[in-house]
Amino acid sequence: MNLSAVVIARNEEVAIGACLDALAWCQEIVVVDSGSIDRTREVARARGARVMDHEWSGYGPQKNFAVNQAANDWVLCVDADEIVSPELRVGIEHAFASVQFQAYEITRRNRFMGSWLRHGEGYPDRIVRLFDRRSAQWSEDPVHEKVMTGVPVGRIQGDLLHESAESLDSYLRKQNEYTTVQAEELYRRGVRPSVLRLVLSPLVRFIKFYLFRGGFLDGIPGLVHISIGCMNTFAKNAKLFALWRRQSAR
Question: DSSP string spanning 85-98?
Fold first, then answer.
């Protein structure tokens, strides 16, 4: 069975080489670039990837476009700052030796502030990334997209290694952008803000992941990671309040 690795990228020349090197065993690598001004495309082509340009359309739509460009129905979707570990490659090959599902969940391990997180929200971060595109597709969400499928999902052994950010500054900037997009999407869908959700959602998130799922065992990186996550929840809802207040003031 042939497999296409699919990667979306923009200005990822620093990270994408290692990402594609770890995918060299796949029968095809497709990279969809959305206007890089660095050497992302050149680095990808040097690794044998088929590279094409596509204007940015949001994470979900961009990934669906990329999946549709693959020559094979089975696709492995990887971000440019993620690396398929040797153990994960073995897990995928083992699953393909006797396919029992049309979609598979992979465990992602996140690196944050120089440390690999082992608890809380950072691990195990289970996501569907390997699937038959005839049975699954990406949601159209502009951010925090996910694979949607109506078929049973299997699980593959081995980790997808994710370098969360080059620096804490860049990570915070990215999270601020994400919460803005999330709030705008909720507003577009007519979702009304709630004071209860604004206050309780960050608290529930902290208790769930920092206490119950052991985020405290990851030391300072674990505390900072969940604190930013809780702040994101608060910021998303605060921005939603601001959008509705702006509307009512017109």
Answer: -HHHHHHHHHHHHT
What is the rounded CA–CA span in Å between residue 132 and residue 104? Answer: 9
Q: Give ∠ CA 78-79-81 in degrees, rounded to 5.
A: 125
Q: Which of 189, 188, 198 is nearest to 234 (CA)?
A: 198
pLDDT for 140-159, tens place per residue? 998 899 999 999 999 999 99
Strands 147-149 and 125-132: unpaired
CB 7, CB 20: distance < 8 Å: yes
Beta strands in 59-153 (DSSP E): 74-77, 82-84, 103-112, 115-116, 125-132, 136-138, 147-149
4-53 pLDDT tens trace: 999 999 999 999 999 999 999 999 999 999 999 999 999 999 999 999 99
pTM of the model: 0.90
Q: In this structure, are strands 50-53 and 136-138 parallel, antiparallel, or unpaired?
A: unpaired
